[in-house]
Amino acid sequence: MDDMLFYDRLQFAFTITFHYIFPQLTMGLSLMIVFFKWKFLRTKSVKYNDAAKFFMKIFAINFTMGVVTGIPMEFQFGTNWAKFSELTGSIIGQTLAMEGLFSFFLESSFLALFIFGEKLMGQKLHFLTGFLVFLGSWASGWFILATNAWMQHPVGYEILDNGKYVLTHFSELFANPWLLPAFLHNQVASVVTSSFVVASIGAFYVLRQKNIEYGKLFLKTGVIFGLISSLLIAFPTGDWNAKNVAKYQPASFAAMEGIFETEEAGAEIVLIGQPNMVEKKLDNKIAVSNILSFLTYQDWDKKIQGMDQFKKEELPTNIPALYYSYHIMVGLGTIFIGIMFLAGFFLWRKKLFTIKPLLWVIMFLVPFPYIANITGWYVAELGRQPYLVYGLLKTADGVSPTVSSGNTLFTLLGFVALYMLLGLLFLVLVGKTIHQGPKHQTH
Amino acid sequence: MTATLVSLISIFMGILGGNSTKILVKNNSFDVIGNTIAGVFGSIFFIKFLGRLGFSPQNIVDKGIVNYQLFAINSFVSFFGGFVAVFIIKKIVNKLQKDTSVTNSDFYT
Description:
The complex is a heterodimer of chains A (443) and B (109).
Chain A: H1 2-19, H2 23-43, H3 46-79, H4 82-116, H5 118-121, H6 123-152, E1 157-159, E2 165-167, H7 170-174, H8 179-208, H9 212-248, H10 250-257, E3 269-276, E4 281-288, H11 291-297, H12 319-348, H13 356-364, H14 367-384, E5 387-389, E6 393-394, H15 405-436
Antiparallel strand pairs in A: 1-2, 3-4, 5-6
Chain B: H1 3-24, H2 32-50, H3 57-60, E1 61-62, E2 65-66, H4 68-103
Antiparallel strand pairs in B: 1-2
Helix pairs in contact in B: 1-2, 1-4, 2-4
């Protein structure tokens, strides 16, 4: 049984991590495409239209890869997590179905119209199709986050005699206090990724002295979007999320912050340290006193419960992984603010395009928002353990009893092989698009 | 093997089908990016729609046992779905461009 649970979790972790590489870019990029198209309508400058069409091509590749990797996720609910689907299907099935029916079809239909229909529709309708693609992609995030929010903080449900969960109030699914902060944090994080991608392509063109006019436009837009979103990711969205975790999942909060023992006179914030699970302490700790209490409760001396206040079965199952994921996310977020602030300053001083070391940094920084986004999701998912539905359904009780661990391992190996192939195909297609550049297609 | 892996292999067959148009019907084909995108959607559409006849991934794998005949049918339909999607989309795009080439006013002048 332990083997089965391990491989089911490993497979889901692997497939969802690979899947989330794609939607995190499409959600943020769709907003930037709408911005480029809007600028084109306002200024009539063709370079904005070319930028919108160029990034829609990259969007389309990402969207397609997201679909390819998303379809197997759907099957996993049935094959690997059948018990979970059986018990909670009448709740999570609703938001997942809405994601497919409303968001996916909205997004894919108008994506095709955006790519092929510019001449047919005229510019204003073309802008509208771009906006509807954006709406579809963000609605998709909303429905997925609504599903996850219910798993993190279940509301509006009752448990029937047969153990199944049903909704008592449909509206509570979307009024869940977990949902809005999680959604905003997630969406702003996707804008961080997309702005770094746009800025990185811009830096590449400027450094290569190729498509320089577009390179400068991408850099400028990427840096401005990147600076704003990097700040918003920390405050208010990140702050709001952390307060929610402290309120609804205090054991997870203690674990992710690395608080082993309750500090009565206010909790410190840990900057660096390694969890020592044998001695129940952080090794080589560097911390600042009372800051965590202030950030969480706006009270320097407020007590925050440490892990010593909880029973072992209430604590997350992998505390070091949770702690490191959280600190990697926060650390990278802080670095993003610093770099984007620096780039924003030089952009304001009209020197950004000539400072080559900074352009190299911007170009090679592109994997890190992906890492920050993915570790952010690890925080949410590892923090919820040992539950699938927090406080109600244990992860071990949600697996399919009839799928053997050998079967799951074989499938996982197949996924690793096929996803390597898919990843290679993705890099080739995106590389080809960037190499072609934002061709001037309108004259 | 579980149905999850079958669904992924199925989509790969669609990508192959979409890109095979480059060899089989050169005039009705996009570049590798367009063929791949159309191939993915074509295979998903065909399998979701026609898979109900008995060769969907859930039907192929029952308690870990793979029915290779159904698997072969699924792969073929997926390949065909990718191929047909490229063919049809290309026709539509050609028609759209033909219809709008004369009537489209020059927005930029």
